[in-house]
Amino acid sequence: MSVDPMAYEAQFFGFTPQTCMLRVYIAFQDYLFEMMLVVEGVILKKLDAIPGCQISPSQIRKCTEKFLLFMKDHFDKLFGKMEEVLLQLVLNIPKNVLLPEDKVHEQYPYGKEEFQALQEELRQLQQQCRAEAAAGEALSAELEEQKAVTAELEKIVQCFDGLENICREHGTGNFKESFAFLTQNSKKLQDALKDVEEKSKKLERREQLL
Predict the structure, then answer these.
(1) Is the pTM above the cut of 0.70?
(2) Alpha-carbon gap, residue 25 to 129, rounded angstroms
(3) d(CA 2, CA 196)
(4) Which of 16, 27, 75, 116 could form a disulfide with 10 if both were Cys (CB 3.0 to 4.6 A apart)?
Protein backbone atom coordinates (compact mmCIF):
# COMPACT_ATOMS: atom_id res chain seq x y z
CA MET A 1 0.00 0.00 0.00
CA SER A 2 1.11 3.58 -0.72
CA VAL A 3 2.35 5.63 2.26
CA ASP A 4 1.47 8.95 0.60
CA PRO A 5 -1.50 10.38 2.57
CA MET A 6 -3.03 11.84 -0.65
CA ALA A 7 -4.97 14.35 1.43
CA TYR A 8 -6.02 16.43 -1.60
CA GLU A 9 -7.54 13.36 -3.27
CA ALA A 10 -9.35 12.53 -0.03
CA GLN A 11 -10.77 16.08 -0.04
CA PHE A 12 -12.14 15.54 -3.56
CA PHE A 13 -13.37 11.94 -3.33
CA GLY A 14 -14.49 11.96 0.29
CA PHE A 15 -12.24 8.97 1.06
CA THR A 16 -8.53 8.21 0.77
CA PRO A 17 -7.49 6.29 -2.39
CA GLN A 18 -5.57 3.86 -0.17
CA THR A 19 -8.78 3.01 1.68
CA CYS A 20 -10.51 2.38 -1.64
CA MET A 21 -7.73 0.06 -2.81
CA LEU A 22 -7.73 -1.79 0.52
CA ARG A 23 -11.45 -2.46 0.23
CA VAL A 24 -11.03 -3.68 -3.34
CA TYR A 25 -8.19 -5.96 -2.21
CA ILE A 26 -10.28 -7.43 0.62
CA ALA A 27 -13.25 -7.95 -1.72
CA PHE A 28 -11.09 -9.78 -4.30
CA GLN A 29 -9.48 -11.88 -1.58
CA ASP A 30 -12.84 -12.86 -0.08
CA TYR A 31 -14.09 -13.78 -3.56
CA LEU A 32 -10.98 -15.92 -4.13
CA PHE A 33 -11.54 -17.82 -0.86
CA GLU A 34 -15.21 -18.39 -1.67
CA MET A 35 -14.32 -19.58 -5.17
CA MET A 36 -11.79 -22.10 -3.83
CA LEU A 37 -14.41 -23.51 -1.43
CA VAL A 38 -16.81 -23.94 -4.34
CA VAL A 39 -14.10 -25.66 -6.40
CA GLU A 40 -13.28 -27.93 -3.46
CA GLY A 41 -16.95 -28.88 -3.09
CA VAL A 42 -17.25 -29.70 -6.79
CA ILE A 43 -14.10 -31.87 -6.64
CA LEU A 44 -15.43 -33.79 -3.63
CA LYS A 45 -18.73 -34.48 -5.41
CA LYS A 46 -16.92 -35.69 -8.51
CA LEU A 47 -14.67 -38.01 -6.45
CA ASP A 48 -17.67 -39.46 -4.60
CA ALA A 49 -19.13 -40.45 -7.96
CA ILE A 50 -15.97 -42.41 -8.88
CA PRO A 51 -16.11 -46.02 -7.55
CA GLY A 52 -13.08 -47.14 -5.55
CA CYS A 53 -11.51 -43.68 -5.34
CA GLN A 54 -8.70 -43.63 -2.74
CA ILE A 55 -8.39 -39.82 -2.39
CA SER A 56 -9.66 -38.61 1.03
CA PRO A 57 -11.32 -35.23 1.75
CA SER A 58 -8.31 -34.22 3.90
CA GLN A 59 -6.00 -34.72 0.92
CA ILE A 60 -8.34 -32.62 -1.19
CA ARG A 61 -8.25 -29.88 1.48
CA LYS A 62 -4.43 -29.86 1.52
CA CYS A 63 -4.34 -29.55 -2.25
CA THR A 64 -6.93 -26.78 -2.13
CA GLU A 65 -4.91 -24.85 0.45
CA LYS A 66 -1.71 -25.17 -1.64
CA PHE A 67 -3.53 -23.97 -4.73
CA LEU A 68 -5.06 -21.11 -2.73
CA LEU A 69 -1.61 -19.99 -1.55
CA PHE A 70 -0.37 -20.14 -5.13
CA MET A 71 -3.31 -18.07 -6.36
CA LYS A 72 -2.98 -15.56 -3.49
CA ASP A 73 0.74 -15.04 -4.19
CA HIS A 74 0.08 -14.32 -7.86
CA PHE A 75 -2.95 -12.20 -7.00
CA ASP A 76 -0.89 -10.04 -4.59
CA LYS A 77 1.70 -9.40 -7.31
CA LEU A 78 -0.93 -8.51 -9.88
CA PHE A 79 -2.84 -6.36 -7.40
CA GLY A 80 0.34 -4.45 -6.48
CA LYS A 81 0.79 -3.46 -10.13
CA MET A 82 -2.90 -2.61 -10.49
CA GLU A 83 -2.78 -0.49 -7.30
CA GLU A 84 0.24 1.44 -8.58
CA VAL A 85 -1.50 2.22 -11.88
CA LEU A 86 -4.79 3.22 -10.26
CA LEU A 87 -3.15 5.46 -7.66
CA GLN A 88 -1.05 7.23 -10.26
CA LEU A 89 -3.46 7.51 -13.21
CA VAL A 90 -7.01 7.18 -11.86
CA LEU A 91 -7.20 8.23 -8.21
CA ASN A 92 -4.54 10.93 -8.39
CA ILE A 93 -5.12 14.70 -8.80
CA PRO A 94 -2.28 16.38 -10.76
CA LYS A 95 -0.24 18.99 -8.93
CA ASN A 96 -1.37 21.77 -11.31
CA VAL A 97 -5.09 21.17 -10.70
CA LEU A 98 -7.09 23.13 -8.12
CA LEU A 99 -10.43 22.02 -6.76
CA PRO A 100 -13.31 24.52 -7.18
CA GLU A 101 -13.44 25.24 -3.45
CA ASP A 102 -9.71 26.09 -3.49
CA LYS A 103 -9.85 28.61 -6.35
CA VAL A 104 -9.82 31.41 -3.78
CA HIS A 105 -6.23 30.47 -2.90
CA GLU A 106 -5.26 31.13 -6.51
CA GLN A 107 -6.89 34.57 -6.42
CA TYR A 108 -5.48 35.52 -3.00
CA PRO A 109 -2.20 33.64 -2.54
CA TYR A 110 -0.55 33.99 0.86
CA GLY A 111 2.89 32.87 1.93
CA LYS A 112 3.82 31.45 5.33
CA GLU A 113 4.97 34.82 6.69
CA GLU A 114 1.81 36.59 5.49
CA PHE A 115 -0.33 33.87 7.01
CA GLN A 116 1.48 34.24 10.36
CA ALA A 117 1.00 38.02 10.18
CA LEU A 118 -2.73 37.51 9.61
CA GLN A 119 -2.86 35.12 12.56
CA GLU A 120 -1.10 37.69 14.76
CA GLU A 121 -3.51 40.40 13.62
CA LEU A 122 -6.45 38.11 14.34
CA ARG A 123 -5.05 37.40 17.82
CA GLN A 124 -4.72 41.13 18.54
CA LEU A 125 -8.28 41.77 17.34
CA GLN A 126 -9.55 38.99 19.58
CA GLN A 127 -7.75 40.55 22.56
CA GLN A 128 -9.26 43.96 21.73
CA CYS A 129 -12.72 42.43 21.49
CA ARG A 130 -12.28 40.73 24.88
CA ALA A 131 -10.99 44.01 26.41
CA GLU A 132 -13.92 45.98 24.97
CA ALA A 133 -16.36 43.36 26.21
CA ALA A 134 -14.84 43.55 29.72
CA ALA A 135 -14.98 47.37 29.62
CA GLY A 136 -18.61 47.20 28.53
CA GLU A 137 -19.43 44.89 31.44
CA ALA A 138 -17.65 47.25 33.85
CA LEU A 139 -19.60 50.25 32.48
CA SER A 140 -22.85 48.34 32.79
CA ALA A 141 -22.06 47.50 36.42
CA GLU A 142 -21.16 51.15 37.11
CA LEU A 143 -24.41 52.33 35.50
CA GLU A 144 -26.38 49.91 37.66
CA GLU A 145 -24.56 51.22 40.73
CA GLN A 146 -25.29 54.82 39.70
CA LYS A 147 -28.95 53.95 39.23
CA ALA A 148 -29.06 52.50 42.74
CA VAL A 149 -27.34 55.59 44.22
CA THR A 150 -29.68 57.88 42.28
CA ALA A 151 -32.69 56.00 43.63
CA GLU A 152 -31.39 56.39 47.21
CA LEU A 153 -30.76 60.11 46.67
CA GLU A 154 -34.27 60.53 45.31
CA LYS A 155 -35.62 58.88 48.46
CA ILE A 156 -33.58 61.26 50.64
CA VAL A 157 -34.78 64.28 48.62
CA GLN A 158 -38.37 63.09 48.97
CA CYS A 159 -37.83 62.70 52.71
CA PHE A 160 -36.49 66.28 53.05
CA ASP A 161 -39.33 67.57 50.88
CA GLY A 162 -41.79 65.86 53.21
CA LEU A 163 -40.13 67.36 56.28
CA GLU A 164 -40.17 70.82 54.70
CA ASN A 165 -43.86 70.46 53.93
CA ILE A 166 -44.51 69.45 57.53
CA CYS A 167 -42.57 72.49 58.77
CA ARG A 168 -44.61 74.77 56.52
CA GLU A 169 -47.87 73.22 57.70
CA HIS A 170 -46.91 73.91 61.34
CA GLY A 171 -45.66 77.43 60.63
CA THR A 172 -42.04 76.64 61.36
CA GLY A 173 -40.82 78.53 58.32
CA ASN A 174 -38.03 77.51 56.02
CA PHE A 175 -36.91 73.93 56.61
CA LYS A 176 -33.26 74.68 55.88
CA GLU A 177 -33.20 77.48 58.42
CA SER A 178 -35.01 75.28 60.96
CA PHE A 179 -32.60 72.45 60.34
CA ALA A 180 -29.61 74.77 60.80
CA PHE A 181 -31.15 76.10 64.02
CA LEU A 182 -31.73 72.56 65.31
CA THR A 183 -28.15 71.64 64.45
CA GLN A 184 -26.78 74.59 66.41
CA ASN A 185 -29.00 73.87 69.41
CA SER A 186 -28.05 70.20 69.28
CA LYS A 187 -24.36 71.14 69.39
CA LYS A 188 -25.00 73.46 72.35
CA LEU A 189 -26.86 70.70 74.14
CA GLN A 190 -24.00 68.29 73.49
CA ASP A 191 -21.46 70.80 74.88
CA ALA A 192 -23.64 71.40 77.96
CA LEU A 193 -24.02 67.64 78.47
CA LYS A 194 -20.24 67.22 78.33
CA ASP A 195 -19.81 70.05 80.87
CA VAL A 196 -22.31 68.41 83.22
CA GLU A 197 -20.59 65.03 82.88
CA GLU A 198 -17.17 66.53 83.64
CA LYS A 199 -18.51 68.37 86.72
CA SER A 200 -20.23 65.20 87.90
CA LYS A 201 -16.96 63.25 87.58
CA LYS A 202 -15.12 65.92 89.59
CA LEU A 203 -17.73 65.77 92.37
CA GLU A 204 -17.43 61.98 92.53
CA ARG A 205 -13.66 62.22 92.87
CA ARG A 206 -13.99 64.75 95.73
CA GLU A 207 -16.46 62.55 97.54
CA GLN A 208 -14.11 59.57 97.18
CA LEU A 209 -11.23 61.64 98.64
CA LEU A 210 -13.35 62.71 101.60
Answers:
(1) no
(2) 54
(3) 109
(4) 16
